[in-house]
Structures are given as structure tokens and as C-alpha cells.
């Protein structure tokens, strides 16, 4: 049995310890916001927060996570009120939306650790692949999310 915390709730998985976190989250915990993209750790669709670090759930065996704290997109915000979610929606960034949970997780961790990231910081931290090509709007949306996080701006339609 493997025990750790997911979205502030203790969990115990009776799965093979080699089971990737992605499948434990999706199949055993019904947390389907974390997406399966490539299964090789290349695309970032399965990005989650493990102890404050962006990690690829498809590459993390649950047996190695004993005692850790995992946050998924569901645990980040129940109502899309996180500044990254607000900014991406306001800038009309999501298209098909498949990659967005991983991008939101990577960006939210970046902003927690760096309240004023440069364009280079954003591009280094958010390396997720998006087949829809949202990249031109993504950097400016994350910069906007940083300003929201710092209390410098609001997003029309959110909390006003």
C-alpha cells in the first residue's frame, strides 16, 4: 500500500507500487483533470504539483511518493478562480483544452516561486506541448496572471 496526500486529502492506494501516478489519479481516484498525453514525459499534459515542484504524473511511480503532497488541477481551484486560470480564460488561450491542466499547473508553480517572471522564465518553466499552438497568447496570459497574483490587476467577469 502506498500512502500520500492528494489535494489535501490522505489517500492509500492498493496498487502495484510501480503504477504511474497518472493512472492512480485517473483510475483509482477519479481525478481526470490530469491528462494522458504521450506517456513518455515529453508533452507535459500530466503535470502535477508534488511537494511544490512540477512533475510528470506519467513518470512518477506511486511507490516513490510515500509521504508526499500532490496537487492536481482539481485541487488547485474548484471554480477556476486561480489567477492562471482566470488569465488564460480572459485571454481566450484554451482551444481544445487538452493540454491546459498541465500548463496551468506548471504556470501556477512558477508564479508561486517567482511572482514576477520574465518571458524567459515563463518559457523555461512552461515547456508543455500544445498541438493547437497557443504559444503566442500563453506568455502574455501568464504575465497577466502574475499581475493578478500580485494584486495589480483584476480580470473582468471574475470577482467584480
Automatic annotation (TrEMBL):
Keywords from the named record: 2Fe-2S, Iron, Iron-sulfur, Metal-binding, Oxidoreductase
InterPro entries recorded: 2Fe-2S-bd (IPR002888), 2Fe-2S-bd_dom_sf (IPR036884), 2Fe-2S_ferredoxin-like_sf (IPR036010), 2Fe-2S_ferredoxin-type (IPR001041), 2Fe2S_fd_BS (IPR006058), Beta-grasp_dom_sf (IPR012675), Diverse_Oxidoreductases (IPR051452)
Domain of life: Bacteria
PROSITE patterns: 2FE2S_FER_1, 2FE2S_FER_2
The 2Fe-2S ferredoxin-type domain, residue ranges: 1-76
Gene3D superfamilies tied to this protein: 3.10.20.30, [2Fe-2S]-binding domain
PANTHER family with a match to the protein in the record: BLR6218 PROTEIN, OXIDOREDUCTASE WITH IRON-SULFUR SUBUNIT
Protein's name according to its UniProt entry: (2Fe-2S)-binding protein
Amino acid at each position: 500500500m502506498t500512502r500520500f496526500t492528494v489535494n489535501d486529502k490522505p489517500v492509500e492506494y492498493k496498487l502495484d507500487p510501480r503504477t504511474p501516478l497518472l493512472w492512480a489519479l485517473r483510475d483509482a481516484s477519479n481525478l481526470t483533470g490530469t491528462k494522458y498525453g504521450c506517456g513518455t514525459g515529453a508533452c507535459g499534459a500530466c503535470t502535477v504539483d508534488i511537494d511544490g515542484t512540477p512533475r510528470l504524473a506519467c513518470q512518477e511511480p506511486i511507490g516513490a511518493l510515500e509521504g508526499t503532497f500532490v496537487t492536481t488541477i482539481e485541487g488547485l481551484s474548484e471554480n477556476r478562480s486561480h489567477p492562471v486560470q482566470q488569465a488564460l480564460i480572459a485571454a481566450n488561450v484554451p482551444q481544445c483544452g487538452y493540454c491546459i491542466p498541465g500548463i496551468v499547473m506548471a504556470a501556477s508553480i512558477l508564479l508561486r516561486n517567482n511572482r514576477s517572471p520574465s518571458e524567459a522564465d515563463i518559457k523555461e518553466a512552461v515547456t508543455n506541448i500544445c498541438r493547437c499552438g497557443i504559444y503566442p497568447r500563453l506568455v502574455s496570459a501568464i504575465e497577466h496572471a502574475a499581475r493578478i497574483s500580485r494584486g495589480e490587476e483584476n480580470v473582468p467577469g471574475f470577482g467584480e
